[in-house]
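Module 6 notes. Inverse folding takes a fixed backbone as the condition and produces residue identities as the prediction. Think of it as a translation problem where the source language is geometry and the target language is the twenty amino acids. Below is one complete input and output pair. Work through it position by position during the lab.
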């Protein structure tokens, strides 16, 4: 870490309870004061909260690196702050041109055309999830975390019997406080099991490929050679972890907002074609991935401040989303007809979300089907529980709701059956 004074200095910590209590107000105050500022929290880092600085930094991989740099003390996961001590995820923890080798494989795997073939599966799973809840008249909508988990597991071809364990693991990782029993269980017991299962599947698909995502990835070449099992794991694990919590966070927050705004919910029920545009606004205002980090690779002047090689920087997508041109004069209003809506909820630049083509239809299907099948649901706002910290991932741990009971679409099938070996 370089020593020396960095200016302007602010009192800010994206992982603090003060920030989590009202992230919108916290970022607004920061933008008003200094859209690029230094904080001493976590060993010191730059906070980029204005749209232009976030946009420019994310598009300059040479200056703002996503990779690990031992010489600069970045030995854990470089894109989180503080760095998490975990295995490497590809391509999100590499810079171009290295990252492009893996990213081009992902781009071939997740095209809109390929995703369209998954739609019947996505729709059926969403209906089966709602079936699990609909007869009782009350439910916790946070169980819908399971939808992106089961869809991703099915599509990739990892053992389907583990779908609920994947869902619970990612929910715990995002929502349980570090140090809690839930977090310990997830890291010490679930993670080794799920890692072993995915690694076993990778080895099996190399020997006997099937029509699934893991077979596709593991049989690709990097620089003309076979992809290693470790590389394949780094990609597959990122595809699972990148999509489960984020998509569930988006739908959870949107469902709460729609309960608070029944007129808007009714508008979307009567005009389902409006959901596409509404979803972009939900992405902008709820920004499931609030902020990710980079390492500054050279002494430089950036948007009026002096940065030094080795400095860490936090790119606050959520804050940029309330500052960009399309946010207009009313960035905090939720306008489900806002268009254009060039938000940064999926990031921007070479690492822009590789899964957005899948995230959008999953989230749209969940929201549309709940509105259609539970049109009068109300969330018990007093009993909702948010993640313990909102600095990186934001969302609800619990979304208790009531609704008029309805009928199952698949009365003879159940999600639990899929958990059998
Ligand atoms: C609402 C849902 C989602 C949100 C808000 C979201 C957000 C993001 C963001 C902000 C990034 C940029 C990371 C960076 O610049 O460092 C990203 C990257 C990524 N996301 Fe998503 N994501 C979502 C869903 C998904 C899904 C469903 C998948 C997988 C199927 C996925 C896979 C990835 C991958 C692989 C990357 C890394 C791309 C690269 O490094 O080139 N995401 N996502």
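Target side of the pair, the amino acids:
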């Amino acid at each position: 870490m370089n020593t020396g004074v960095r200016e302007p200095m602010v009192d800010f910590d994206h992982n603090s309870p003060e920030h989590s209590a009202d992230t919108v107000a916290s970022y607004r105050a920061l933008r008003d004061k200094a859209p690029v500022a230094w904080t001493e929290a976590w060993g010191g880092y730059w906070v980029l909260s204005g749209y232009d600085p976030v946009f420019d930094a994310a598009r300059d991989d040479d200056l703002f690196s996503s990779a690990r740099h031992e010489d600069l003390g970045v030995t854990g996961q470089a894109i989180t702050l503080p760095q998490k001590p975990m295995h490497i995820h590809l391509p999100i923890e590499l810079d171009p041109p290295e990252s492009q080798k893996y990213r081009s494989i992902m781009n071939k795997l997740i095209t809109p055309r390929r995703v369209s073939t998954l739609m019947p599966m996505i729709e059926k799973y969403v209906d089966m999830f709602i079936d699990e809840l609909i007869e009782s008249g009350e439910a916790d909508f946070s169980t819908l975390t399971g939808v992106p988990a089961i869809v991703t597991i099915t599509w990739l071809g990892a053992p389907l019997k583990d779908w609920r364990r994947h869902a619970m693991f990612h929910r715990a990782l995002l929502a349980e406080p570090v140090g809690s029993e839930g977090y310990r269980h997830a890291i010490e017991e679930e993670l080794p099991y799920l890692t072993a299962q995915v690694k076993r599947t990778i080895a099996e698909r190399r020997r006997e490929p099937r029509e699934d995502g893991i077979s596709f990835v593991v049989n690709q070449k990097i620089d003309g050679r076979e992809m290693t099992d470790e590389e394949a794991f780094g990609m597959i694990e990122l595809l699972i972890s990148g999509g489960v919590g984020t998509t569930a966070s988006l739908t959870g927050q949107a469902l709460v907002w729609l309960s608070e705004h029944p007129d808007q919910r009714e508008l979307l029920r009567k005009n389902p074609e409006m959901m596409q545009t509404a979803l972009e606004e939900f992405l902008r205002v709820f920004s499931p991935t609030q902020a990710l980090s980079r390492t500054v690779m050279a002494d430089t002047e950036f948007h009026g401040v002096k940065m030094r090689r080795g400095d860490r920087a936090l790119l606050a997508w959520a804050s940029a989303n309330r500052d960009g041109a399309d946010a207009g004069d009313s960035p905090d209003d939720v306008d489900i007809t806002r268009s254009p809506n060039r938000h940064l909820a999926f990031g921007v630049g070479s690492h822009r979300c590789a899964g957005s083509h899948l995230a959008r239809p999953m989230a749209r299907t969940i929201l549309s089907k709940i509105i259609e099948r539970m049109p009068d649901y109300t969330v018990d706002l007093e009993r909702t529980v948010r993640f313990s910290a909102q600095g990186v991932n934001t969302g609800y741990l619990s979304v208790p709701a009531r609704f008029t009971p309805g009928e199952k679409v698949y009365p003879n099938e159940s999600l639990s059956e899929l958990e059998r070996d």
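Reference fact for the lab report: The domain at 87-290+322-415 is CATH 1.10.630.10 (Cytochrome p450).
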